[in-house]
Model the fold of this input.
Amino acid sequence: MLSRLHAIADSVGRFVAAAWVDTRTGAVLVKHVVHDEAFVAPALDAATEVMRSPERPPRMVLLSTRHVHIIQRLTRDPHRVLVVICERSPNLGLACALVRAQAEAEDAC
Done:
């Protein structure tokens, strides 16, 4: 799991943080933070809460003024969610594709 977070950090431009979280407990299973800003922990909590409902779509992209929060639920374990936070940039589509590819690779394990 941690190696996938490092791969995302290396691939996604303006990367801030990534984590695998468990929506049942709200626990952060593993995280990789490059820029430990004050909003990272609350953002992970919010993403966990948003994805707690099984009625939510498997993938969400949330935009704030300065950041993009990409949230991807695993198919194999719908309670495990990948959360990636990066600064807003023109490469949003590429960042979403990279996050989806890493989540699908984790799903295949």
In short: The beta strands are 15-22, 28-33, 59-63, 67-73, 80-87. The helical segments are 2-11, 40-51, 92-108.
